[in-house]
Amino acid sequence: MVTLLINKKKYTIDADPEMPLLWAIRDSIGLTGTKFGCGIGACGACKVLIDNVASYSCLTPVSMAVGKNITTIEGTSENLQLLQKSWEKFNVPQCGYCQPGQLITAASLLNSNKNPSDTDIDDAMSGNICRCGTYQRIKSAIKHTVKLKKQRKS
Length: 154
What we know:
Elements: E1 2-6, E2 9-13, H1 21-29, E3 47-50, E4 53-56, H2 62-65, E5 69-71, H3 78-89, H4 99-112, H5 118-125, H6 135-153
Helix pairs in contact: 3-4, 3-6, 4-5
C-alpha cells in the first residue's frame, strides 16, 4: 500500500512501487485528465507537477512520488487557473489531447520564472508535442498570463 498526495487529497492505493505514477493516477485513483501519449517521456501528455516541477508521470515510479505534493490538471494553483483562462482567450486547444501536459508545463515554468522570455518559453515547452501545431497560441497564452499576474499585483 502506498499513500499519494494528489491535488491536496490523500489516496491510499495498492500499487507496485515501480508502477508508473501515470497508471496510479488514471487507473487506481480515477483522475483521467492526465493523458497517456507515448510512454517514453517524449510527448509530455502525461506531465504532472511534483513539488511544483513538471514531471513525466509515465516515467516516474510511484515510489518516487510518495511524500511529495502532486498536482494534476484536475488540481488548482494560481498559475494553472490563470493559464486556463488565457488558453480559452487564445483558443489554444484544437483536439485538446496534449493540453493537460501543456498547461502543467506552463504552470511549472511560471512557478520558477515570473517573466519568461520567448526563449525561456520555447525551452520549457520543448518537451511537449502538439500534433495540432498550436505552439504560437500556447506562447501567446503564456505571455498573456504573465501580464495578468502583473495586473493582479498592481
